[in-house]
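Box 4.2: Ligand-aware structure prediction
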Amino acid sequence: MSQTISYKDILARHGFSFSKGLGQNFLTNPTIPARIAEGCGADGETFVLEVGPGAGILTRELGLRAAQVTALEIDERLLPVLAETLAGMDNCEILLSDVLKADIPAIVAQKSGGRRAVAAANLPYYITSPALSRLIDSGCFEAVTVMVQKEVAHRLAAKPGSADYGAFSVYVQYHGTPRILFDVPAGCFTPRPKVDSAVVRIDLGAPRVDTLSESRFFEVVKAGFAMRRKTLRNCLSAAFGSRLGSDGLSECFAAAGVEPSARAETLDLAAFGRLADAIELRLRKD
Ligand code: SAM
């Protein structure tokens, strides 16, 4: 259906100029939005929250599959464009809203009608991590499917021991299971970005590791990756040395069964969990 709409012509007719600052690289290849909509799990029982509808090319494909779509767009210049491209799509609603400020749980509660909820977006590059974190932290979605820069996609899905594995990989994999669905070449967008993209689906659920304290877990992860070339012992001394003392820190490594000379990028989530719990128990004792 979307093949019959010329998004470029409609944007031109509205005198629209792309904003680099808002990460406005719009999809122009019609097959990609359909594949994202298929891949995100939208069906007749589903509510979809979209971030950044742009001219509505993905919104329309989501609307053709989902029960209800609500899309958050920050740029009010796009509202008349969207009114035209989504004409007749009664299950698609646009909210003029900044995803970094929106009350996502309230929007989902109000708009989903109690349906299972998923999120989908061709995310603006300049807010990839905070926008993705807000979607995940909202606790509203069964799955979040996003198009991001290819290198970011590889970081999200990276396994321990690889160069791409870092604090954001651990954060995403703590909350869910990421899967790269497919790559999207730069030529599929207008204007053409400098790098290729990829679509990642993250299936969300209960935390993948049981820990005594989630905030301690992420404090340890952040500290561990703060100085990538240093050993975990060095990294954690900087963060916890004054609270645990040198012997206390050694005991935590021993209790967790983690080598102090290891580097954070070699630790899987379970090992981070054991280390965080050992530190938490030790701090509670003191
Ligand atoms: N979904 C469209 C597509 O695939 O062609 C547009 C994607 S474009 C990469 C990102 C969109 O997000 C733009 O429409 C931009 O205006 C919007 N946007 C940028 N920052 C935003 C924010 N903080 N909150 C909501 N939308 C935002």
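In the box above, the bound molecule is S-adenosylmethionine. The CA atoms of residues 48 and 69 lie 5 Å apart.
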